């Protein structure tokens, strides 16, 4: 145990030991809900993924303070596959492991004294941690992609199927087939006799005041007679 502590708190491992302690404290606060995963990520996870997939020649380092600088550095090193906090935690852990085992087994073999051995181990640990961090965080990229939710206005132009017996200016429901379980939405129509259960209608407007969609019968748009007239 004493040998472990001596190595952990001696150069160069001590440089990573202090940082690793901060990282562990951060993840404890995340687990208890005191902090959010992206608290140190000014660009968000989506920007991190974009930076990992497509890197411009000139890296934008205009974020505020050291956090923005860290995000820019990680982007330049192609390490923004995940949020800054995740990437930095993996990088710190790998750097600590590399420096710890390097100090134990590599430094004694390097001629030139303790300082030269410590410097060589530090450089080797960082050089090894960077590509390994990129390799380990790359599969995590899809987990942090931010997808914008569809708004009500995005549904304008969609076709729905009427689920209630009729639709008027005050009442009506329809089902929107979204490729999954389907959405049940509130619809309104000025012509109270234009729509019946099972009819298809086109969403033409989102009425924010009524909190419902204005719809028009598809058959009128297609110049088709109502189903009940065709049966007659």
Query: Which stretches are low in confidence, meaning pLDDT under 50 for 5 or more residues running?
Result: 42-67, 228-232
Mean pLDDT over the residues: 76
* Strand proportion: 5-15%
* Strand order, largest beta sheet: 1-2-3-5-4
Q: State the share of residues found in helices, binned by percent.
A: 40-55%
Q: Report the biggest beta sheet as strand number plus sense, adding barrel if it closes.
A: 5 strands, mixed, barrel
Features:
5-stranded mixed beta barrel, 2 domains, 12% strand, rod-shaped, 5 strands
Structure, described:
This protein has 232 residues and is an alpha+beta fold. Helices cover 45% and strands 12% of the residues. The protein starts with a helix and ends with a helix.
TL;DR of this structure?
45% of the residues lie in helices and 12% in strands. With 232 residues, the protein is an alpha+beta fold. The model is unreliable at 42-67 and 228-232 (pLDDT under 50).
Topology, element by element:
Blueprint (H helix, E strand, L loop, with lengths): L1 H7 L4 H19 L12 H10 L11 H12 L7 H23 L7 H24 L21 E4 L10 E4 L6 E6 L11 E8 L4 E6 H4 L5 H5 L1
Parallel strand pairs: 3-5
Antiparallel strand pairs: 1-2, 1-4, 2-3, 4-5
């Amino acid at each position: 145990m004493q040998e472990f502590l001596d190595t952990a708190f001696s150069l160069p491992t001590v440089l990573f030991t202090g940082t690793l302690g901060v990282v562990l404290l951060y993840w404890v606060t995340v687990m208890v809900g005191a902090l959010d995963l992206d608290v140190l990520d000014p660009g968000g996870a989506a920007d991190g993924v974009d930076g990992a997939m497509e890197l411009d020649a000139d890296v934008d380092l205009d974020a505020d303070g050291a956090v923005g600088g860290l995000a820019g550095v990680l982007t330049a090193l192609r390490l923004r596959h995940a949020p800054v906090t995740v990437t930095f935690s993996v990088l710190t852990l790998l750097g600590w492991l590399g420096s710890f085992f390097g100090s134990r087994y590599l430094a004694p073999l390097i001629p030139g004294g303790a300082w030269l051995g410590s410097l060589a181990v530090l450089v080797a640990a960082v050089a090894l941690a960077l590509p390994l961090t990129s390799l380990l965080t790359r599969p995590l990229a899809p987990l942090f992609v931010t997808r914008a939710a569809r708004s009500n206005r995005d549904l304008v132009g969609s076709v729905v199927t009427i689920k209630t017996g009729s639709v008027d200016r005050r009442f009506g429901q329809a089902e929107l087939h979204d490729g999954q379980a389907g959405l049940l939405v509130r619809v309104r129509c000025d012509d109270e006799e234009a729509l019946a259960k099972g009819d298809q209608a086109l969403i033409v407007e989102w009425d924010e005041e009524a909190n419902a969609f204005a719809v028009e019968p598809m058959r009128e748009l297609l110049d088709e007679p109502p189903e009940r007239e065709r049966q007659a």
